[in-house]
Amino acid sequence: MHDLIDSHSHLDVEDFDQDRDAVVQRARDSGVARQVVPAIAQSGWNRLGSICRQYSGLYPAYGLHPIYLPQHQPSHLDELHRIIEREQPVAIGECGLDHHIEGLDPSSQLDYFEAQLKLAGKHDLPLIIHARQALDEVTACIRRHAPLRGVVHSFSGSPQQAQQLWKLGFCIGIGGPVTYERARRLREIVAHMPIEFLLLETDSPDQPMHGHQGRRNEPALLPQVLASVAGLRGESEASVAAATCANAVRLFRLD
Questions:
Q1: pLDDT greater than 90 at residue 226
Q2: CB within 8 A of 208, min separation 6: which ones?
Q3: Is 214 helix (H, G, I), strand (E, B) or coil?
Q4: Peptide bond into 147 cis (omega under 30)
Q5: How far apart are the C-alpha atoms of 62 and 185, rounded to whole Å?
Q6: At 198, phi and psi to the nearest 5?
Q7: Reduced to 3 DSSP states, what percent helix, strand and coil does the chain have, rounded to the nearest 5?
Q8: What's the DSSP call for residue 211?
Q9: Could you tell me which of 232, 207, 243 has the C-alpha nearest to residue 222?
Q10: What does the pLDDT read at residue 255?
Q11: Torsions phi, psi of 209, nearest 5?
């Protein structure tokens, strides 16, 4: 068993309400003692903070997720500033752009995203970024507001797009998709990328691992991501675990 950090887990959502204690314990038993838990909307911030205070090793991030755009209001950006000052989270997020889902106004998404980039710069916090069919635009936004730091989670772009993010000092988060052999492009990137920009994640309860299709994902399954990454890189699981943990500790300034 290796010490691991799940850099992206939505442990606060309703999917875990019936057995959250057991989920946290299974994660710890699997070596996942620490998790970064990003928010999705203002309505869940207080609940997320309360859950993270309830369990040691859970670290909150607060932000406005682009998929939940209909729930966001401009006043929530002011509230985000206040909760950052009050609770000093480890990151701002989950935020970003999503051009996959129809009906999410691109202009409004961009307004909320850029406002959160500015808050990250103001508070010297890393960003947890969602970028679906929007990687080039996300990268351009990061470049406009540089210097910033953070992670583009569930990375699904090209080697060239990944390299642009590394050059800006951003990590890429790798989770369940890397465990599928059909994800050839992603697996090739993971095999050859600089390990100092790699984070492991589950995105629980979403993006289940190979062999767990159709079931709820959870942080205890992170060792499967580790095994896939180590195998692709031809490195030991111990060395990959140590490097990715160090990356997460450095990025999020964890205890």
A1: yes
A2: 176, 214, 215, 216, 217, 221
A3: coil
A4: yes
A5: 31
A6: -110, 130
A7: 50, 15, 35
A8: T
A9: 207
A10: 75
A11: -75, 165
φ, ψ of residue 52 to 5 degrees: the values are: -65, -30
Check if the beta carbon of residue 27 is closer than 8 Å to that of residue 1. Answer: no
Q: Using alpha carbons, select from 30, 82, 2, 3 the residue that is nearest to residue 254.
A: 3
Half-sphere exposure of 22 (CA within 13 A, CB side): 5
Q: Determine how many CB atoms are found less than 10 A away from the CB of residue 194.
A: 9
Partnered with residue 152 across adjacent β-strands are 129, 172
Residue type, 140: A
Q: What is the largest CA-CA distance in the chain?
A: 49
Q: Where are the alpha helices (DSSP H) in the chain?
A: 20-29, 45-54, 74-87, 106-123, 135-144, 159-167, 184-192, 222-233, 237-252
What's the rounded Cα separation, in Å, for the pair 251 and 20? 26
CA pair distance 176, 109, nearest whole angstrom: 26
Question: Residue 179 is encoded by which pair of tokens?
Answer: 């465990």
Would you put residue 151 in left (φ > 0), alpha (ψ -120 to 50) or beta?
Answer: beta
Of the chain, the end-to-end C-alpha distance in Å amounts to 21
pLDDT tens figures, 68-116: 999 999 999 999 999 999 999 999 999 999 999 999 999 999 999 999 9
Phi/psi at 154 (5° precision): 50, 55
